[in-house]
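Task card 7
Instruction: Convert sequence to structure tokens.
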Amino acid sequence: MLFSHDTEHALEIVVELVNTGPPATETEHLPDLAALQEFVDHNRLSDARDLDAADLIATHGLRDRLHEVFRTANDKDAAVRLINAIIAGARTSPHLTDHDDYDWHVHFFAPGARLAEHLAAEGGIALAYVIAADELDRLRVCEAPDCSRVLVDLSRNRCRRYCDSRTCGNRMHVAAYRARQRESATR
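Output:
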């Protein structure tokens, strides 16, 4: 494990959030409060309740800013500026908690924070840990030419290139295989 469980979990949530809509995908997967609540429930985000339209708008805005971090991951200074701005915009209040049958762990969002602040604090701190560990190259945009989804490569040998091995990865491998077959048939 490269990062703590909590950091990896926060990074997974960041990736899932970014990949819920434009520009990462053509389809908006968080179109309404019901979808946003499903995202919260699926990711077991604590203290995220009483969602309203402002939460949806703020979460969409945060999603765009987080996507920009992945798009600038080859420029450390730009990524640092973006991440610092994300964290600065959230009310942070690090505190220990042991909610929902989890052992003691640290939350970075302030108690009572709205959803976007919660996501900005937790996700922003997780991204800050990535930079502090000099692992920024693990933040990537999928290498499939028709995909803009993002990923965090937590593999030991840093070999993950596609957002999903079953879709983009498989599609690209099949295309490469067919290209090799065509090339060998023309020889």
